[in-house]
Structure prediction request, 172 residues.
Amino acid sequence: MENINVIEPQWFALNVRSRHEFQVRERLTMKGIEAFLPTVERLRRWKDRKKMISFPLFPGYLFVHIPRRAQDILNVLKINGAVNLLSGAPGEPVPVPEEQIIPLIKAVKNNEPLDPYPYLKEGQRVRIIKGPMRGVEGLLVEKAERHMLVLSVDVLAQGVALRIYASDVERI
Prediction:
């Protein structure tokens, strides 16, 4: 059994009530808990107008950066709208590796266009070697004759696709 009282903060996937992602992120931030909610902009149409709206990239989930201590976990779970941290075994939340979260944070900060993408376990691993996303690693795939880099989040069994030029990547 792993030690539940790891002091260094780790990223965890937090399952939240349906359509409560933004409210939970705000409540976590107000309590001083670092939270990351990757979003995607989509055009929403009504009868009389159109508007770009932010939607969660992974509906029902956001990420928290906390030490793996019982008190810190309890502080997160006490937030109104929080359901549970994704766990491997009951009471043992599974950390999301930093190498899966940092590229998502970079992509969101750089306003890169992201598309939800089916989770892939296999494919060519590549590293971006040019531009603001330099150093980010992922899977190279083709979608509608365009090259995409898939950033995977294993614990959610989901991923997102980022448009790239094949010439901007190298094999790992």
Notes: The domain at 113-171 is CATH 2.30.30 (SH3 type barrels.). The chain is about 15% helix and 45% strand. The CA atoms of residues 61 and 119 lie 15 Å apart. The longest helix spans residues 98-109.
